[in-house]
Amino acid sequence: MAEKKLFNTVSQSLTNEQKEKLEDIITLQHSSESNKTILGWLKEPPGHPSPETFLKVIERLEYIRGMELETVQINHLHRNRLLQLSRLGSRYEPYAFRDFQENKRYSILTVYLLHLNQDLTDKAFEIHDRQILSLLSKGRKAQEEIQKLNGKKLNEKVIHFTNIGQALIKAKQEKLDVFEVLESVIEWNSFVSSVEEAQELARPADYDCLDLLQKRFYSLRKYTPTLLRVLEFHSTKANEPLLQAVEIIRGMNESGKRKVPDDSPVDFISKRWKKHLYENDGTTINRHYYEMAVLTELREHVRAGDVSIVGSRQYRDFEEYLFSEFTWNQTKENTRLSVSLSFEDYITERTSSLNERLKWLTANSNKLDGVSLDKGKLSLARLEKDVPEEAKKFSASLYQMLPRIKLTDLLMDIAYITGFHEQFTHASNNRKPDKEETIIIMAALLGMGMNIGVSKMAEATPGLTYKQLANVSQWRMYEDAMNKAQAVLVNFHHKLQLSSYWGDGTTSSSDGMRMQLGVSSLHADANPHYGTGKGATIYRFTSDQFSSYYTKIIHTNSRDAIHVLDGLLHHETDLNIEEHYTDTAGYTDQIFGLTHLLGFKFAPRIRDLADSKLFTIDKASEYPKLEAILRGQINTKVIKENYEDVLRLAHSIREGTVSASLIMGKLGSYSRQNSLAIALREMGRIEKTIFILNYISDESLRRKIQRGLNKGEAMNGLARAIFFGKQGELRERTIQHQLQRASALNIIINAISIWNTLHLTKAVEYQKQSGSFNEELLHHMSPLGWEHINLLGEYHFNSEKVVSLDSLRPLKLS
Question: What is the pLDDT of residues 504-545, one digit of tens each?
């Protein structure tokens, strides 16, 4: 009844013209896509970020805007209900919409298109973001090519001027005539020519590449006039010079004028770009460089949240993501943050904690094994492996007792034992899967989790069709269902007695597994550290009990650190994570600050510890033995001035108003290095210093971190063994479909971990009954072994049918 009323309300706020357009998108074919309806065309994921892709995205955006759906009354609907309707709209095919009652059809389509309008706006600007990065990357590559081409000449000049320099040094030392000595090495006219040649070969003193971008301007012009015409930008500041510049360029595009007005604002442009802003007369603004500079600054300010885009979800005003000051003041007494609301109490407590560690280290610095504080450099001896050989043999003996099993059987076993399959309720009616549908779900999970795809899985599974697997993939294996199924598995594993030998579920680690992308995708990044191809990263969280409790897809070039809190705060399991480990890429000063505010102990393994900067709140001179490694003093003034806003930011993250990764990405932008970001950084430096002091003082802590990270690496090893299809490449264009693959893989990993733990428990019981048994060795085991699991399936060969050249199979001609 409530749903019918909702549909009636939305439908009644639509005009007849809007309803006709909604009918058109599910019945008419798009002019450029003869085999697709307009709705199918609108749903197409963008491919590789390029000017052409940008224009295609804008074409779809303008089509939706032309329907003027923003006038429809949906403000009274709860955000989660709108999201649910939008997800339904994204799954239904045009023929399904045509079967619906009118009000239902119009309502779901309307909500979906309004959400798609936001997505397309975000995608359009993301393409611009990538184009600016590509512009700068091409400039760097062009500079590298110049250096390669001129390498021999440059080397000759270095040798040449080395000889001249040595001659001049000799003249100075022996008080000889400088010019006579110089001409003994090179004739004067040749020297002048050589200097001129060197000037031609020289790159800018700052070795920047912006002078090489003049010709690249025209690649931006393929789409930037449309960008400035279609997207509407707002600023938090009145009369923002950047937006004035945007309006000037927009006006020039519309009028056809080529000359940039002399009074155009330039103060907001960075020094790097200003060097190239004017022509040789020093007053005329270079149109190409002005426009490139403005478009680059626009990218940075939008990413930081200082400039918002109307109709966007990802690029709103920074303050819109947070609790308002009024709401914060009304609710802060009940906040779940782990620090005092009083700055004075906070800084007193942190000063005491930091000073306590500094005093302890001062008194014990000469007693620490494997730690050196020589000449202002911190160094640690490499940790020896702490897994005894006896434990490896013990583990092998237990695994030898495990029965061999096919992965298909293993998955069905764990489904019946845990009931995780019941979480795959149908997205439209919440119906749980029956027995037949459960088998189809398991097949789809294996197809996606092993990366062979549901089409190949259907071919390899007698009795199942591609249509069946595709249907459950679309309607039952959505993000919420996958997360719930994963939580059931993790919770079940958490309660097993053997799991407690590996940990109590309060510590975890996270690590990225880099994957090549075999298709053009808006989210594909190139990273020279991981080969020549483009890719994405599966960022996985592993508990101390060897369960994988959270996963997400991130950009390969994204800093792991900004995603750490997403997993710690938004997993849906019973695990109570208190301490978390990452590798070096998983930390920043600001993450140290936020994790402390949110009540987590953050413990990264820091590479190049010797270069880490430690800070004091009091003067470093109070700790003379440590003064060489204490290289900075905390700015408590900026913390005090911004303390309320920092707490409001942390509270907003804790309560789910904004994801940590989104807001941390904005805080990390150079243009948002304002007092709030600086205050959070300073608070993080306190926590980082305390952590490093604990890290070098406590070998057991270092070992605990090492063990935690090793568990994550072992998890990645199993993941790669399972995800063998298509050479381990992701072939999905959208993050949603990539995440579906990653989540299916996670479910399989957790199922294997449970199956192994259950059977290892039986093996342990047998060992106990058989005689001598060292219970301590159980702590060094892992439930992630897979040698006994058949990951490849079974192959049947028909020897009865004899085939000759005269009885080849017929061709498919229809």
Answer: 999 999 999 998 888 777 777 776 665 667 888 999 999 999
CA 247 to chain centroid, in Å, comes to 33
Of 266, 296, 294, the C-alpha closest to 282 is: 266
The pLDDT assigned to 531 comes to 62
Of 155, 275, 152, the residue nearest 213 (C-alpha): 275
- Residue 559: name the closest of 688, 634, 660 by CA: 660
Nearest to 439 by CA among 486, 476, 403, 487: 476
**Most confidently modeled range among 156-170, 385-399, 639-653:** 639-653
517 is written with which tokens?
């992308």
**3-state SS assignment for residue 37:** strand
User: What's the CA gap between 445 and 353, in Å, rounded?
Assistant: 49
CA gap 352, 349 in Å, rounded: 5
Look at residue 619 in the predicted model and tell me its pLDDT: 87
49-53, 369-373, 416-420, 670-674: least confident range: 670-674
Closest by CA to 702, choosing from 610, 606, 615, is: 606
What is the rounded CA–CA span in Å between residue 713 and residue 707? 10
What spatial distance separates the first Cα and last Cα of the chain, rounded to whole Å? 48
Residue-wise pLDDT tens digits, 709-761: 999 999 999 999 999 998 888 888 888 999 999 999 999 999 999 999 999 99
Q: How far apart (Å, rounded) are the C-alpha atoms in residues 413 and 411?
A: 5
Single pTM value for the model: 0.89
Please give the DSSP secondary-structure letter assigned to residue 725: G
pLDDT digits (tens, 9 = 90+) for 145-198: 888 888 888 888 888 888 888 888 988 888 888 888 888 888 888 888 888 888
Q: Is 380 helix (H, G, I), strand (E, B) or coil?
A: strand
In three-state secondary structure terms, 630 is: strand
Task: Say if CB 569 and CB 539 are below 8 A apart.
Answer: no
233-235/307-309 β-pairing: antiparallel
Query: How many angstroms separate the CA atoms of 116 and 61, rounded?
Result: 8
Residues 6+ away with beta carbon under 8 Å from 661:
554, 562, 563, 565, 566
Is residue 82 within 8 Å of residue 74, measured between CB atoms? yes
Quick check: 715 and 548 in contact, CB under 8 A?
yes
Token representation of residue 84: 């649910």
Compute the C-alpha angle 639/642/647, nearest 5°: 95
Neighbours of 272 (CB within 10 A): 12
Once rounded to an integer, what is the mean pLDDT over residues 794-811? 82
The amino acid present at 713, given as its one-letter code, is E
Q: Are 714 and 391 in contact (CB under 8 A)?
A: no
Residue 30 phi, psi (nearest 5): -75, 140
